[in-house]
Design goal:
The complex is a heterodimer of chains A (522) and B (292). Chain A is built from 16 helices and 20 strands. Chain A is of the alpha+beta class and 522 residues long. The chains are: A alpha+beta (522), B mainly alpha (292).
């Protein structure tokens, strides 16, 4: 009798378990309100509850979300055809009026620490000719509107005027069209969700989803190994090595959209502060303006060694802004081949047969293994006769000095959501009025390149824009506008027997966590 | 029979504890290693050109591509751990002794002055000491380094600023006892200048407790430097001290690459235990109350 009771209990426990899943996030969302804060952890939570008009596939290509199709009907108007028959969690039907309501609400969120209006402000007017059509007007041609819309979650108009952020957190207002319905939210601790049986997308495997916040890297890994959680995000590189050999777990990895690279000072034609001659004498000109010197410095870096030894395999050596398979990737544009002899020859040709002295700066608390990367680069540069001193500085001081062009060679990283962004933000000529080249700290400037970017940014056709993006990518790399080192990998770890689709955009979507198809019994 | 000078008596009493003698021998060996580091290490661990990342995280006893044997393995940058530890000891001892001496001079002077002059000066100095000692040393040092930035000199400055108070308190205690002695009265009657009185008459007689606290403080300063470097606020990353070496290896502990943290840890432990053994015995020998 007693045994039967236990057996029955175990059975119910295991079936309940099969339908429930717990995922651990690395940082806590600041709110459930999908328009409160442009913050990656919020997005990870919100994609389970809400949908967007345009979605991104794992490789960051645009795919239909709540909009089935979109096209530019004239230079200033985008038309979106909406998905019919979609219902919010509160039972109301999704129509064009909800889109208009959402766009009106986004700029009015009170006390937003990072407003979503950056994604909606280009829309100057909106028309809803019928319930399943939305026309958005922009001032002038703006090809990136569909990309911007991959950030805007749609909420139902039933929430009434000015819904308060607190009401989203309490659960009162939390109704989306998403794959899961929120049942409880404990700030900084955990979120409970139930499957939305009426969701338009492929049915998630899990009936019940718990999202826990475990910011400590070691604790997150330990929770996975103990089986307390089934999926963790942002696996630290040191743990990844160990997890790869552990049969209890498996990993899912993909090249992220975060490039780690080196800036070379191009803002000065005269001496640059941290470069001197081989015996410490001041140089009359800035050697970093010479293409051959930049090529030599790039070629001297053994990127596979950095990936293998410093990043422990958790990165891809980079020769351009985005990784293979990602939109805008230039085929065949590989990282420069590591070649000490050729690098030395190039330096000699440029008039520096005995090299020079340089200080390589970097942060030591910002990017994965940043301090170790610059030491490794320092070793490699020293080998071609560029005597390198390495100086790692804590991030707040570092970035303040980098913003003032204080350094000659320095490491930074740049994360982006689409491939034209680094072209516009990083290597376009620094133009504060236009808002482009905003983080071009190296002050690279090439009018030919700028013209190419101007052209691609007014090209609406997706394929033509990609061709131009690739051309711009090649031009910047041929000119060594910056020295790309590697793209970080996004790594997830899950219990063995589960499969997960890794995503370039760092989002963790439990919808894409499924059991590996069980082998049929013999 | 030969007359026993104070020094021979001191030496005899010190040698009564074999453990303390062992400690002293270890301290002397470590000091010699630290001083001779550039001559005896197989590699200059601070010269990036001598490191090769492809030699990174090799196990103890492994050989590099060009035949150098890494007896204690290498760290993640391919730095020979043996060389790294010996150079690290150099920084640790330098910072430890340097900051202990400077803090000793400042602290003892203020303590003597407080005891001798009394009054408002004493109140001011001693309340400052109380205030200083009520904060955990590591917290104050962290704040100072956050403002000043990294670097060996800044670490020494920070440690000096948090450690002077202990000397001041000890010096004042000793000086309060001594200043009522007849020799001080005699010196005052001779109308000797104040500085002479303080430093030539009072200070030498307060020395024993200061020497004891000095040894303990050297060990404390070394620990504090290691802690600060471990937390990433001490020395630059290309010139690791023991604390930074331990921090570098810490993240590999779970991956089985124990040697990156383990050997610098042993070196740090040995140094501190040895200094403390010497300090303990000095206290016993120099404390008149423990005289048999």
């Amino acid at each position: 009798m007693f045994k039967r009771l236990i057996a029955a209990l175990l059975l119910t426990a295991s079936t309940a378990h099969a339908q429930s899943v717990t995922m651990a996030m690395s940082s806590a969302p600041t709110s459930v309100d999908p328009h409160y804060h442009t913050f990656a952890p919020n997005e990870t939570l919100d994609i389970h509850i809400y949908d967007r008009l345009v979605e991104r596939d794992p490789q960051n290509n645009l795919i239909p979300g709540l909009a089935l199709s979109w096209q530019l009907i004239d230079d200033g108007t985008w038309e979106f055809k909406l998905r019919p028959g979609v219902k919010f969690h509160d039972g109301s039907e999704f129509t064009a009026a909800d889109v208009a309501y959402t766009f009106a609400r986004v700029p009015t969120v009170v006390n937003s620490p990072g407003s979503f209006s950056i994604y909606t402000k280009t829309v100057v007017a909106m028309e809803t000719p019928d319930p399943y059509t939305v026309r958005m007007k922009t001032s002038g041609i703006y090809p990136l509107l569909p990309v911007d819309l991959t950030n805007v979650f749609i909420i139902p108009k039933n929430l009434g005027p000015a819904p308060a952020t607190e009401d989203f957190n309490s659960g009162k207002n939390t109704a989306g069209t998403g794959a899961f319905r929120m049942t409880s939210y404990k700030s900084g601790e955990r979120v409970e969700l139930e499957r939305n049986e009426a969701w338009w997308g492929p049915k998630p495997h899990w009936q019940h989803l718990t999202i826990r916040m475990i910011p400590n890297d070691g604790a997150r890994t330990a929770a996975l190994l103990a089986g307390d959680v089934q999926l963790i995000e942002f696996v630290p590189t040191a743990d990844a090595t160990r997890l790869r050999t552990d049969t209890r777990v498996s990993l899912a990895e993909i090249a992220s959209l975060r490039l780690i690279y080196l800036w070379l000072d191009r803002s000065r034609t005269g001496p640059t502060p941290f470069v001197t001659g081989p015996n410490g004498e001041t140089l009359a000109t800035n050697p970093l303006n010479d293409l051959r010197v930049r090529q030599a410095l790039s070629m001297a870096i053994n990127r596979p060694a950095i990936v293998d030894r410093v990043m422990e395999g958790a990165a891809y050596a980079a020769g351009q802004f985005v990784g293979p398979g990602t939109w805008g990737h230039a085929p065949g544009l590989n990282p420069p081949t590591y070649d000490v002899a050729k690098a030395k020859a190039l330096l000699a040709e440029a008039g520096y047969p005995n090299g020079f002295r340089i200080t390589l700066h970097g942060p030591n608390d910002r990017y994965v293994n940043d301090g170790k990367i610059i030491q490794a680069v320092g070793q490699m540069w020293s080998r071609i006769g560029v005597q390198t001193t390495v100086d790692a500085i804590t991030w707040p001081n570092y970035i303040a000095r980098a913003n003032k062009q204080d350094f000659s060679a320095y490491l930074l990283g740049w994360g982006f959501s689409e491939a034209t962004n680094p072209l516009r933000s990083l290597v376009y000529t620094f133009s504060p009025a236009k808002g482009w080249g905003a983080v071009n700290r190296g002050r690279y400037s090439n009018p030919g390149f700028d013209a190419l970017v101007d052209r691609l940014m007014t090209t609406a056709d997706e394929a033509a824009r990609e061709t131009l993006t690739i051309a711009a990518n090649r031009m910047a790399m041929a000119d060594v506008a910056l020295i790309p080192l590697h793209l970080q990998k996004n790594i997830w770890a899950m219990r063995a027997g589960l499969s997960f689709v890794p995503r370039a955009d760092e989002d963790t979507r439990v919808m894409e966590l499924r059991p590996v198809a069980a082998k049929p019994a013999p | 029979m030969k007359e026993e000078t104070p020094f021979t008596r001191f030496r005899k009493e010190f040698a009564e504890s074999p453990l303390a003698v062992l400690g002293l021998v270890v301290v002397l060996i470590i000091a010699a290693l630290a001083l001779l580091a550039p001559l005896i290490t197989p590699q200059n661990p601070y010269d990036l050109a001598q490191l090769d990342i492809m030699d990174g995280r090799l196990a103890p006893g492994a050989k590099s591509a060009d035949g150098l044997t890494f007896w204690l393995g290498t760290d993640d940058q391919g730095r020979d751990m043996l060389s790294g530890i010996i150079y690290g000891l150099r920084i640790s001892l330098g910072v430890g002794i340097g900051s202990a001496v400077v803090a000793g001079i400042i602290g003892s002077s203020l303590g003597l002055a407080a005891a001798y002059f009394g009054g408002r000066l004493e109140t001011a100095i001693m309340r400052l000491v109380d205030l200083q000692l009520s904060f955990p040393a590591i917290l104050v040092a962290l704040m100072i380094l956050a403002v000043l930035g990294k670097g060996v000199l800044n670490v020494m400055l920070a440690i000096t600023l948090v450690e002077w108070a202990r000397y001041a308190r000890t010096a004042r205690g000793a000086a309060l006892v001594e200043r009522r002695r007849e020799y001080i009265e005699a010196a005052e009657c001779l109308a000797l200048p104040r500085w002479r009185l303080l430093f030539r008459h009072l200070l030498p007689n307060c020395m024993p407790p200061l020497i004891v606290i000095g040894t303990i403080q050297i060990a404390r300063a070394i620990t504090l430097e290691a802690t600060l470097s471990f937390l990433g606020l001490g020395v630059p990353i290309t010139e690791p001290s023991l604390g930074l070496l331990i921090a570098n290896g810490y993240q590999y502990m779970l991956s089985g690459k124990y040697w990156i943290s383990f050997y610098p840890g042993i070196a740090l432990l040995t140094t501190i235990v040895a200094i403390n053994l010497v300090g303990d015995q000095l206290r016993d020998v120099l404390n008149p109350r423990l005289k048999r």
